[in-house]
């Protein structure tokens, strides 16, 4: 039963990931461009940066939310989503909140999931370079299991040790 539920969730998340845009085109930029080096520390200009960030607001009234978009220096989207706090000095201290999607340098989706007060919560999908999809379940920032499930394009599935996920995120 668990396997059927997990497989259904993976299928729905994979389908939902196509054409997903977290930040609306109507979102309004609310701060100057922030430049970060590869170590996620703030730098003074684009020549020193690995990526840059735009802070925006979208919606109105009760639906207004703070969102961000990060870009690789080549202009491709690196990440987008909600936040509750952005550390202008060290991005490692920023607190994500809501849906967040990250992308590979080529623009393809990499990781998608939901954050609650900076902690991963719910199912996170990782689009693998070989076409597979990895799914990890989180609650309060911790994985619910010591494994994750990978579904390959041909439909085959395998369980992998959670220790492998960091190498797949590179």
Give a short synopsis of this structure:
By secondary structure, the protein is mostly beta strands. The protein has two helices and 13 strands, in the order H-E-E-E-E-E-E-E-E-E-E-E-E-E-H.
Radius of gyration of CA atoms, rounded to a whole number? 17 Å
Oligomer: single chain
What fraction strand? over 45%
Strands, count? 13
Mean model confidence by pLDDT = 87
Largest sheet: 13 strands, antiparallel
Number of helices: 2
Helix/strand class: mainly beta
* Unreliable sequence segments: 1-19
User: What share of the residues lie within helices?
Assistant: 10-25%
| Overall spatial form | globular
N-to-C SSE string, H for helix and E for strand: HEEEEEEEEEEEEEH
State the distance separating the first and last CA atoms. 32 Å
Give a description of the structure.
With 170 residues, the chain is mainly β. It is 12% helix and 45% strand. The chain has helices at 2-17, 165-169; strands at 28-29, 34-36, 42-43, 51-58, 65-72, 77-85, 95-103, 109-116, 119-127, 133-139, 142-143, 147-151, 157-161. Strands 1, 2, 3, 4, 5, 6, 7, 8, 9, 10, 11, 12 and 13 form a 13-stranded antiparallel beta sheet that branches. It is globular and about 45 Å long. Mean pLDDT is 87; it is low at 1-19.
């Amino acid at each position: 039963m668990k396997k059927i539920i997990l497989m259904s969730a993976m299928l729905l998340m994979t389908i939902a990931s196509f054409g997903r845009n977290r930040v609306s085109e109507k979102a309004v930029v609310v701060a100057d461009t922030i430049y970060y080096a590869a170590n996620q520390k703030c730098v003074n200009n684009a020549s020193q940066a690995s990526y840059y960030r735009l802070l925006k607001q979208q919606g109105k009234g009760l639906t207004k939310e703070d969102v961000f978009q990060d870009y690789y220096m080549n202009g491709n989207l690196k990440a987008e989503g909600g936040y509750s706090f952005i550390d202008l000095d060290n991005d490692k201290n920023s607190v994500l909140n809501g849906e967040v999607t990250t992308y590979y340098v080529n623009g393809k989706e990499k990781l998608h999931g939901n954050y609650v007060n900076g902690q991963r919560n719910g199912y996170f999908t990782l689009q693998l370079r070989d076409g597979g999809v990895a799914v990890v379940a989180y609650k309060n920032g911790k994985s619910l299991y010591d494994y994750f499930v990978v579904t390959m394009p041909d439909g085959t599935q395998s369980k992998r040790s959670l220790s492998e996920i960091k190498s797949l995120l590179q």
